[in-house]
Amino acid sequence: MSQDWIVACEFASLAANDVARFDMAEATYAVIKTKDGRCSVIDGLCTHGKAHLAEGFVDDTTIECPKHNGRFNALTGEPVASPVRVATTVYETRVNDGKIEFRKP
Amino acid sequence: MLDYTVGGPEAEVARNAGLVDADWYKPKVDRELMKQFMQRSNGLAALHVASWFAALAITGYLAHRSWGTWWAVPAFLVYGVLYGSMSDSRWHETGHRTAFRTKWMNDFVYYIASFMVFREPETWRWSHARHHSDTIIVGRDAEIAFKRKVPFYKYLLELLSFGAFPAELKQWIQNAFGVMTSNQKDFQPPETFHISRWASRVYLTILVATVVFSWQIRSFEPMMFVGLPSIYGHWFVVVLGSTQHAGLAENTIDHRLNTRTVYMGPLNRWIYWNMNYHIEHHIYPSVPFHQLKKLHLAVKDQLPAPYPSTISALREVVYALRRQAKDENFYIKRQLPQHAA
Fold it and tell me: Exposure winner among A25, B100, B140, B247, fewest CB in 10 A?
């Protein structure tokens, strides 16, 4: 059963092609807005090395880890450039009442 | 003497000391500014790569025309540096995939530059990722080029790749036959071994074809253009590259203490693709070469004073390496700014 929706941030506070960090209960998330305004919430730490993806570089639908330049598809979580080999978790995300919300399975 | 073997006894010491994949110092930079710094440009990178290939073509033409005369010496000297040294910075930046905005363009140049600088591309990609995780952490970092308790003359021999070239050639041959080295097994995922196998086979085929062609025409001129420049043209990147980490602290998690930023002139920065801003590169590897100077200006108050010239940095490197040849506890202690210590 899905949990309640969690508000990550205001939609307007995040520019297109950008990412913000959201921490909650010892977990960290990366909240991403793609170039065309689609939003995605993924696990905040890179699956390859210990780095916060929220400090990385968003280009269209790709997010790049700031430490080793590995890349994920921001919408599917699939790795698209080494050294990333393992996909990251993408949470169900929506924009509701001007806010980016996500929920865990 | 410390055991620098990757995965050796010092790796466990580093892990127990919390030095493995640790949280490194980062200066404060405004996020909006950082987003600007991280922008890549296909056009700018293509222009730079084109200028490099143009310089290779011109000096190569002059070298060919002067073959058999003394003019060939300076011509091949320049061609060799463009081939065997300048390829290092192109290899490095496209390895990070930050030169071009488009991934395949980075990869295309990366495979060419890897051959020229004589590095098997896939192994070095993973080796370099480790170098960024655990910079100059003994037992973890496979790219500690300047170790302690090593006689200084050995580093002089390395100007002509006396140690690195045979070791790399041996690995290519091993990889071509499907044998992986202990280093590869330590930091390279097994599912990427096939890339190393095939890259080694392709690179060795090019080398063998060049040797066969030289033998057929009874002249070693072709080898002076392909293969040998990785040896005789390598010296300049050893000189510039020695300023990166040599003689500084080991086993620290602050790049300001184990890495140098050196002010260099425009010619060196073109050859080196701004890797003289090396502290900045290590802390923020997502920033492409053409933005490193701007990043440096944004963070320099939080870093140790940069070295004013290549010569000033080299003086320190030579002094430190000569001291470390006898005293493995010696290293250069960098002075951190008081407000950002």
Answer: A25
Residues of A in contact with B34 (CB under 8 A): 55
Q: Rounded to an integer, what distance in angstroms lies between the CA atom of residue B185 and that of residue B174?
A: 13
Q: How far apart are CA B236 and CA B77, in angstroms?
A: 10
Measured CA to CA, the distance from residue B246 to residue B240 in angstroms comes to 11
**Residue A1 within any structural domain of the chain:** no
| B96–chain A nearest CA distance, Å | 6
Interface of A with B in 19-78 (CB under 8 A): 48-50, 55-57, 59, 64, 66-69, 71
How confident is the model over A19-66, as pLDDT tens digits? 999 999 899 999 999 999 999 999 999 999 889 999 999 999 999 999
Asked if B125 reaches chain A (Cβ–Cβ under 8 Å), the answer is yes
B312 class by beta-carbon count within 10 Å (0-12 exposed, 13-18 middle, 19+ buried): middle
Q: Which of chain B's residues have a Cβ under 8 Å away from the Cβ of A85?
A: 189, 191
The answer to whether residue B122 scores a pLDDT higher than 80 is yes
The mean per-residue pLDDT over the stretch B308-312 comes to 97
**Residue numbers in A near B38 (CB within 8 A):** 57
- pLDDT(B214) > 70: yes
Question: Does residue B221 belong to any structural domain of this protein?
Answer: yes
Please list every residue in chain B whose beta carbon sits closer than 8 Å to the beta carbon of residue A50: 21-23
Does residue A70 lie within any of the structural domains? yes
In a domain, B20, yes or no: yes
The total number of structural domains that make up chain B? 1
Find the domain containing B39 and state its range.
9-340
Question: Given a cut of 60, is residue A1 above it in pLDDT?
Answer: no
- Beta carbons of B93 and B281 less than 8 angstroms apart: no
> Model ipTM?
0.91
Q: Give the range of the structural domain holding residue A36, as residue numbers without chain letter.
A: 6-103
The Cα–Cα gap between A28 and B11 comes to 29
Mention every residue, 6+ apart, whose C-beta is less than 8 A from residue A25. Answer: none
Q: How many beta-carbon contacts under 8 Å exist across A and B?
A: 45
